[in-house]
Design a protein that fits this description.
Length: 485
């Protein structure tokens, strides 16, 4: 059967395969835009005509008692289903079609629309309409999905290259003991001419025969220079090419891990694994393998879908040199020593050591504002190096007094800083008739630390796309509206 969910507002449709305890058996039982296939269940995007979930009951595992079809607001419209004029679920099968109109919703941001459940040897369907105020994240957690998962930590943190120690000098040769029965000559008789032992007649010396060559060789011929090579219109290899490109400034840099390659590119000496923004590879040498990771787990995929924030990742493994860039944006490297974290706009992350971990957090005081630009960010912690990008030459502000920045210009800051939202425009008649300074909201910073500000107000995802998940990949995030509660 096929379940189609349509709404007057943007929704994400998902399915959960539940056991007898009403919980998923594992995260693989959560079928949604970032994990569209499960045992017996397939998610299909409707392209604006309603997302669909295909359920083949004969292919469902024996320990699955129920399939719950859900809908959650995708952040592009109202914050709750109170702002939706319609929410319709249609179940089509060979036996006919059933339609359920879900009404009476108010503060909910996610809802279980219908259930397909076992009844003896048969399968039944029923309308549910149970809602959750904390959106897709709360709904998934209620059914046992782990939304706080982290990727497995590396077995050992990356170590800086250490040159091999020089070999120690060889000890002087040791004289071996004389063989048993050896009699040393009496003093004064060393280095005397050889005399045969008694009873052995001396043999007269016979000189070696004179060497006779097997054949005679002709005398060498005088050197004749080769005929000149006719000029060619095409250069023969690099040595005949002259360009400032061959100056050392353009040569490949050296060093372990992440290194700057000029001002707009990085070189990563991969010896194991590293993580980078999907689609940022411009060249590589050696034996490297690439694997798409999405947002880095179901939990982050849900957060990324709701917040518009996150880093679409790829994992690079093997041994070789990897070159990364992001639309010719300026590149900078930051080393974290584990004492403080780095909060950064996900659109400005280029690559980082897999010894670092990150999560998505909302700026304090941002709940309820209409735009999420700069209000959700990635928080990196641990020991390692991260490469970030800026649109133009940034300024690093030392936060020793109250500091404010545009949400789209603030690239990164010390995670220990206290953040908030400040409204600059006063609410009065000018705003009612559409007049504004254009600087209505700013991020505020207090404490001890730093803020990196770029000379641009590009929205998140303004370089390589990728903020957002599933069908929204490559677009900036949707509305905030308190989707995470």
């Amino acid at each position: 059967m096929t379940v189609t969910v349509r709404s007057s507002v943007g929704v994400d449709v998902s399915a959960l395969l539940l056991g007898a305890n009403g919980k998923v058996r594992s995260d693989g039982d959560f079928v949604f835009f970032n994990q569209p296939v499960g045992p017996g269940v397939v998610y299909r995007h409707g392209g604006g005509a309603g997302d669909m979930v295909d359920v083949q009951t004969s292919a469902l595992p024996a320990d699955v008692d129920k399939v719950a079809i859900t809908a959650s607001l995708d952040g592009s419209g109202p914050a709750t289903f109170a702002g939706a004029s319609s929410l319709l679920a249609t179940i089509g099968s060979d036996s006919g079609t059933l339609t359920f109109q879900l009404t009476g919703l108010s503060t909910e941001a996610a809802v279980v629309c219908v259930e397909i459940y076992r009844r003896g040897d048969a399968w039944k369907v029923r309308a549910v309409g149970q809602g959750y105020d904390d959106g897709l994240a709360g709904l998934a957690a209620a059914f046992g999905v782990n939304i706080d998962d982290e990727p497995e930590p590396p077995a050992t943190p990356p170590q800086n290259y250490q040159p091999a120690q020089p070999n120690p000098p060889m000890p002087p040769p040791q004289q071996s003991a004389p063989a048993p029965g050896y009699q040393a000559p009496p003093p004064g008789q060393q280095n005397q001419p050889y005399a045969p032992p008694p009873g052995v007649p001396a043999q007269p010396y016979q000189p070696a025969p004179t060497y006779q060559p097997a054949q005679s060789f002709p005398p060498p011929q005088p050197y004749q220079p080769a005929a000149p090579i006719p000029p060619s219109s095409m250069p023969q290899g690099v040595p005949s090419v002259q360009s400032e490109l061959f100056q050392p400034i353009h040569a490949e840099v050296d060093g372990p891990g992440i290194q700057k390659q000029g001002s707009k590119m990085i070189r990563v000496a991969v010896n194991g694994e590293t993580l980078a923004r999907a689609g940022s590879m411009v060249a590589y040498q050696g034996d490297l393998h690439f694997k798409a990771l999405g947002s880095g787990g179901i939990g982050r995929a849900i957060q990324q879908r709701l917040t518009g924030e996150g880093v679409p990742l790829m994992q690079i493994s093997g041994r070789g040199d990897l070159f990364l860039a992001n639309a010719a944006a300026d590149v900078h490297v930051v080393d974290l020593d584990g004492t403080d974290g780095l909060t950064i706009n996900g659109a400005n992350v280029l690559a980082f050591d897999n010894s670092l971990t990150y999560n998505i957090q909302r700026v304090q005081g941002a709940a309820g504002y209409a735009s999420n630009a700069g209000f959700f960010n990635c928080v990196f912690s641990g020991r390692g190096r991260i490469a970030i990008t800026t649109h133009g030459q940034p300024v690093v502000l030392n936060v020793d007094q109250p500091t404010y920045a545009d949400p789209q210009a603030a690239v990164a800051w010390s995670s220990s800083l206290q953040t908030g939202i400040k409204r600059n425009d006063s609410f009065g008649f000018s705003r009612l008739i559409g007049r504004s300074t254009g600087e209505g909201l700013t991020l505020s910073f207090q404490g001890r630390g730093f803020v990196i500000v770029q000379p641009s107000e590009l929205p998140p995802g303004g370089f390589i796309g990728g903020t957002g998940g599933g069908q929204e990949a490559g677009q900036s995030g949707g509305l905030l509206g308190g989707l995470l509660g």
